[in-house]
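Aim 2 progress update. The chain analyzed this quarter is reproduced below.
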Amino acid sequence: RGAARQVPLTLDSGLQFDTNGDGVVSGDELNAQGLYTTAAVTSYIAANPSKLISSPRLSYAFDASASLPLQLPPYSTPTVVINAPVVIDDCTASMLLDAQASTGADGRRFAETWTLVNPPAGATTKAVQVLTRMLAANYVAGPSTQVTHAPLTRMLYFSNTNGSSCCTDAGSDACSLTQAACPLTLQMSQLRPAGSSSAKYTFQLTVQNWGGKTASGVVTVELRDSATPRLTVVGGPARSESVGQAMAVIGQLQASSCAKTFVVTAAWVAACDSPLVQAAWNNATIDKANLKLALPAYTLPPSPAGLPVVCLLTLTVRQNGYTDGGVPLPVAVVAYNVSLALVPAVPVAVIDQGNFLASADLPLVLSATGSRDPDVRASAAASLWYCWSCAAPACANWSWPATGPSVSVPAALLQPSTTYPIQLVVIKNYSAVPQPMVGGACPGGGSWLSSNTSVTVTTAVAGLEPPLPPLR
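Predicted structure tokens:
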């Protein structure tokens, strides 16, 4: 993942490092005794300059210093993904901001900071202060009720009674936030500017991993005064998939408690940046009128250019609600967008015969029919380009590299008792034109997705018939 970084590794003194007496100081032996620098260790290293420190993951030689460079992969760059309902209404009691799908923590917990950004024009200072307090690591949600957030989450509680029970005018800027018995919650209506039926709040999460790399993400939630269902999608608003795998995008809906009875309908639409993929979506015989969108493997084709295709999936939900008396409520429409990246899969290179002993009196036949492109059905037309090479001097008269899923070397070009290292490069072929060989060698793929594999073929002694190669 880029250039390695170095951190100093120091050792302790007065210790018998080679505890098992095998002549090698292992990482486990050092870890069992501590890691500090002293003169005794320096003397030990100076007297044993050829000793090797080894472990299952590391291997490096001592020099006469008590400090050693430890090569580690670079720190990851975090990616922040926040999942939250796109709309909530006046009957909402709580709202979860969930960023647990974020990545790049490098095995340790993120340092996280939640903030409220771009509050709506006309929002009271009280509303902004209360929401900001709720985004802290913990806050008071009611008498004797302390809320402590789980990592990468924020649960915001709202109330229809707390505002009047602790302050005569909970929506006023003059209402005290420091009263001991005053919960840090507000009625939903107090979060909208006066006279407004809707308001949007944007929440931001900034994370830092233990390597110091940071990233931020935002999510916007709309607050409505009319009965509106709460809609989220499992996994949040962004994901990457491969067309050769079955995938499901699942909407989660909680009908508004402001409506006593209701009827909900759902519909999925897609806007893809590839006409080929868009046409496949339009013609796909899948259920697009369900909260769960299921796409069987190969429903959508891979990009003909070998680049990721992005489809913006939109789940739209309509709620027809009714009061206790059967009076219709305004129709509520909520839409949730999911950015779906269809990422090309790397091909799989397979030499069918594996390592084997061949006869020097018969043609050498090699095949790669087991190779596959995960983005294409096995029964579909060939989508791979094959390049065979052999770097040994004994292969110089073969006129290789060779192309094709199968190759053959005449017996006249084989030498007995000789080892031939065979390498195969498999490249996704996105056009009808075979990929060019560079300087008489197989290309590495460049911008084309590729993979390679190798086998060793050894020819038998002249006159000796070798066993058949293993079946695969």
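The first strand starts at residue 5 and ends at 10. Residues 318 and 333 are 5 Å apart (CA to CA). These observations will guide the mutagenesis experiments scheduled for the next reporting period.
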